[in-house]
Amino acid sequence: MKDHKKKRSHAFLILNISWGTLTIGLFIVLLYSNWQVSQLKFQQNLLHTVEKAGNQIDGLIQSLMQSVYRLPIHDENYRECTEEDLQHLVFNHPEISALAIKDKTGKPICSSIKLKNHLLIQSKAAFAMDGPLSISGLDLPVFLFQQRLGNYYLQVYVLEEVLARHLRTSSRLIQSVWLFDNNKKKIILYLEQKREQPAPIAKKTEYPNLAELPDITQPHAIKTKLSTLDDVDLYMSALPEKLQRSAWREEGLLALLLFVLAIMIYFMLRHWVNKRFSLRRAIKTAIKNERFYPVYQPIMNKKLGICCGAEVLTRLKSHEHEVILPDLFIEDAEQSGLIIPITLQLIEKSFQDGQSLLKNNANFYLSFNLSAIHFKDKHFFDSFYKLYKQYGISPEQIMFEITERDLLIRNDAVLLNRMEALRKAGFLLAVDDFGTGHASISYLQHFPFNYLKIDRLFIQAIGTGAITESLNQSIIHMAKNLKLNIIAEGVETEEQVQFLQENDVHLMQGWYFAKAMNLNKLQSFIKGVNHG
Q1: What is the pLDDT of residues 170-197, one digit of tens each?
Q2: Is the CB of residue 34 less than 8 Å from the CB of residue 254?
Q3: Cβ–Cβ contacts within 10 Å for residue 141, how many?
């Protein structure tokens, strides 16, 4: 048993080290991989947001220009433009603040407002943008979109606020958005999300220097090109702390999930190791190696002064020759059903050892403990009958003690028939540990018992004044009325012996007479008592 415990402890040590190492390694790999995936997902979300904002700006510009492309501008000498025409277009398109058509020098040919300058955007691109600008006739800053059409320039003025509105995003991750003019190397519009307000993004009047802008090589910043403007790029940056917070939240959830899974796997492995090195497995191994053996506790007949029988008790011998008492394994053996092969092994060894003893002492019997499990098993009694016939043992020399706490089912016809068959064949039946379970007078009348064993709990109460002491006479009186032979077990004192004899209980068993012993010592004990 020590070797079994040592192997079990060693197995658990290996399990703990292996599980801990693999779990830590798996945590590191999966958390690192998840971190990378989180960064990638964040960048993809950021890219989607900036592309969406870029599409909004491109859509705005295309909408602005589509509305003015209906003007009959020709390659040569376009002088038919009137202020009323342009004002009509401005009226029909509320996002346009002003329109102007200029010649190559920037001189207005016509405009929807009075222009005092000859402003032209100097760019090689056919379509260009500039701003923010302060224009006479308009109270607020505007952006200028310029399209070259032949010998003329078509200029559309849009309020800065209109452009800013199309750049705004409700995403809580975005910190800032800006438009950057690659020709002039400057920011032309900058929007920043206020920290105390999650949305929307607010326009900033003072733009940061280039050195103050987020590094777009970092995962929290990104840019996209506008399809309508060659020289202008759209940039977005996310709040780094939100990026980190989002990533750490995912890491935390994954870590929790991994921890739960790891614990589940650990307990599954622990269960497997327990099963592999469990007491049940040790019992199976002991059965296979025939390491269960019988010891015998004498049963005395004080009236005749002889040893009339012995209760067969089981012991288990470990690999280290350590004797293991049944308290350590009997419960597990009963629950697993392994009590059946243990009992059969015990009976066979008892018959082998005690064959000559039983033949030389016709009135001597061996008593074996059975439970309801034995009666429910389909093969136990078939195997038992083969054994007792094989060794030529008389049925009158075999007693079965059936534990009362098992509470045999009264309406079980198979059980009752089995017990009646045993009694008819001459076997002795005793109800064991009486008083500790649920047996009653009707219970004893229903089953064909011919012996009753008073439990040691009541015997040891003799002379103590305890409540259980007063029950002894009631049990004895009941047993006599039912014509049951009484065996008192757990007898340890002279006072107990005298009390039992005074109440005509002559069959006794306990340490007062002898402890459980091997067969050789039992034979010597019988000779000493019977011929003393």
Answers
A1: 777 787 888 888 888 888 888 886 654 4
A2: yes
A3: 17
Q: Residue 281, class by beta-carbon neighbours within 10 Å (0-12 exposed, 13-18 middle, 19+ buried)?
A: middle
Token code pair at residue 422: 């045993």
User: What are the sequence ranges of the domains in the chain?
Assistant: 1-277, 279-530
CA angle 329, 331, 335 (to 5 degrees): 115
Cα(322)–Cα(319) distance, integer angstroms:
7
Give the C-alpha separation, 502 to 473, whole Å. 11
Q: What is the pLDDT of residue 227?
A: 82
Give kind and range of the element (H or E) at residue 260.
helix 240-276
Neighbours of 171 (CB within 10 A): 20
- Look at the block and give the residue holding tokens 């970092």: 218
Amino acid at 188: I
In the prediction, which pLDDT does 199 show? Answer: 46
Report the alpha-carbon distance of residue 379 to residue 215 in Å, rounded: 83
Tokens (6 digits) for 342: 């243990």
CA distance linking residue 87 with residue 369, whole number of Å: 113
Strand-pairing partners, residue 193, are 201
Q: What CA–CA distance (Å, rounded) separates 298 from 300?
A: 6
Residue showing tokens 């004893």: 444
Strand arrangement, sheet containing 108-111: 108-111, 98-102, 152-159, 142-149, 127-133
Cα–chain center distance at 409 = 40
pLDDT per residue as tens digits for the range 32-59: 887 777 777 777 888 888 888 888 888 8
**Residue linked to tokens 């859509």:** 59
CB count within 10 Å of CB 357 equals 18
The reported pTM is 0.55
pLDDT at 81: 66
pLDDT digits (tens, 9 = 90+) for 279-332: 777 888 889 999 999 999 999 999 999 999 999 999 998 777 788 888 888 888
Q: Are 346 and 294 in contact (CB under 8 A)?
A: yes
Query: Which residue in 532, 512, 530 sits closest to 363, CA to CA?
Result: 530
Helix (H, G, I), strand (E, B) or coil at 156: strand
**Does the pLDDT value for residue 408 go beyond 60?**
no
pLDDT at residue 521, as a whole number: 95
Report how far apart the first and last C-alpha atoms of the chain are (Å, whole number).
40
Contact call for residues 393 and 427 (beta carbons, < 8 A): no
CATH class of 279-530: alpha beta
Task: Reply yes or no: is the peptide bond before residue 200 cis, omega within 30 of 0.
Answer: yes
